[in-house]
Amino acid sequence: TVLIVDFGSQVTQLIARRVREAGVYSEIVPFQSADEGFARLAPKAVILSGGPASTVDIGSPRAPQAIFEAGVPVLGICYGQQTMCAQLGGAVEGGHHREFGRAFVSVERQSPLFEGVWSEGERHQVWMSHGDRVTALPEGFAVIGTSPNAPFAAIADETRRYYGVQFHPEVVHTPDGARLIANFVHRIAGLKGDWTMAAYKDQAIAAIREQVGDGKVICGLSGGVDSSVAALLIHEAIGDQLTCILVDHGLMRLNEAAEVAEMFRQHYNIPLVHADASDTFLDALDGVSDPELKRKTIGKLFIDVFEAEAKKLGGADFLAQGTLYPDVIESVSFTGGPSVTIKSHHNVGGLPERMDMKLVEPLRELFKDEVRELGRELGLPDSFIGRHPFPGPGLALRCPGAVTRDRLDILRQADAIYLDEIRKAGLYDAIWQAFAVLLPVQTVGVMGDGRTYEYVCALRAVTSVDGMTADFYPFDMGFLGEAATRIINEVRGINRVVYDVTSKPPGTIEWE
Ligand code: XMP
């Protein structure tokens, strides 16, 4: 096991992911409980994450001293490097040399950390994001890499197997970072890369059994990949203690609810309740146009419906959800620390605190592509695994402004045509997610010989690896022209179509 001590970086889970990719099991513990985690897991190596704090501030977080007394290899990243240096007798300076984004590291010395990846004298691109920097090394350390703004960009105490990097090897903008992390776990810590998604599945199943005991679980099913994988996994773990609930909130796509219900009942033979709550949801959303309020309203009603359905089933102890890591990190900081809320994903920040059921979220550490791999491991068909993500609050997020039944109908038709065109063009699998958005804006047009004054429909399509960053999809204009023509001809209420060419960041994938 590799222990990852989380100091609150937005990208701590990427470290875990890189370790998983290297075929090694890891666990993340928040710094507050790192002492306990270190004792419990007896890890073969430790990685200290980055974080928003400054080691020069009084009371800033520290790594457990026990880690440095145990003789295990340690890799400190950014804040992790700084606190390691501060704790071992070096010095850190605050504030003056902020460095964000692309930088280049010159390799000063050969090291097992760089073996087979970087050689002495070379320069390599890395990603930096720091305000503080190390200014004096603890005894035993040497500089193995420098950058213009970080003279101690990479440091090593080869005898004690302590390594520190100021840059972030876990992000894709450090192109060789994954291989450096693999070097740390394989060459330096001597761990074999024999851990797989099949093993993850077994661990997840064991963890579910332990958490749930003989309690009853209900699982909200949206028809998307995440909740389906969560349901299958839980079903493997606890069988008929699980009941799935498909809440039709009236914000699904065309025919979606019926298709999902049928597939789950027939294919998987998992007990499923199809709760039609569309009136409740749409009435509650009447007049609500603030995006966060929409999310909170929907999140609260989801729980109301789950609780009502649980009661009908004679009670449930747990609510299971297919929450993924990117949902978590954008809603609340992993450690409950100071990272900012981008949006309250309904299955995370949108949940009311008064909920009686406890949460089961077996996918909370995973990224979308890992969930798909886990789905394959669980025997889900490829056609299903390849489905585009669909957010829990559904079409409400794609109807900026007030959500009304009429506008939802218009949106549903446009969306179905758009996706149909994408499938026909053979582009569905090349795209991470594609959907229509109905703007609350009417514009003037001319159809036949008459004037029209109808809504604008925006089309969105993006590519992405994990939903954390995304690029707009570069359709050719011919495709867009045809999709626009069909939508305007076939959908009453739309007379203009535009294409969204915003990446994430600065945009998000959904419009709300
Ligand atoms: P954004 O819009 O934040 O979305 O770039 C990233 C990915 O997450 C999906 N998404 C959600 N999924 N509940 C979900 O289950 C939500 O509340 C939610 N909001 C966004 C979004 O569709 C994209 O794939």
From TrEMBL:
Subunit structure: Homodimer.
Catalytic activity of the protein: XMP + L-glutamine + ATP + H2O = GMP + L-glutamate + AMP + diphosphate + 2 H(+)
Residue numbers binding ATP: S222, G223, G224, V225, D226, S227, S228
Domain GMPS ATP-PPase, residue spans: 195-387
Family annotation (PROSITE patterns): GATASE_TYPE_1 (PS51273), GMPS_ATP_PPASE (PS51553)
EC id: 6.3.5.2
InterPro entries associated with the record: Class_I_gatase-like (IPR029062), GATASE (IPR017926), GMP_synth_C (IPR001674), GMP_synth_GATase (IPR004739), GMP_synthase (IPR022955), GMPS_ATP_PPase_dom (IPR025777), NAD/GMP_synthase (IPR022310), Rossmann-like_a/b/a_fold (IPR014729)
GO MF annotation, one: ATP binding
Pathway(s) served: Purine metabolism; GMP biosynthesis; GMP from XMP (L-Gln route): step 1/1
Keywords from the UniProt entry: ATP-binding, Glutamine amidotransferase, GMP biosynthesis, Ligase, Nucleotide-binding, Purine biosynthesis
Catalytic center residues: C78, H168, E170
Functional note: Catalyzes the synthesis of GMP from XMP.
GO cellular component, one term: cytosol
Top-level division of the source organism's lineage: Bacteria
Record-given protein name: GMP synthase [glutamine-hydrolyzing]
Entry keyword Repeat: no
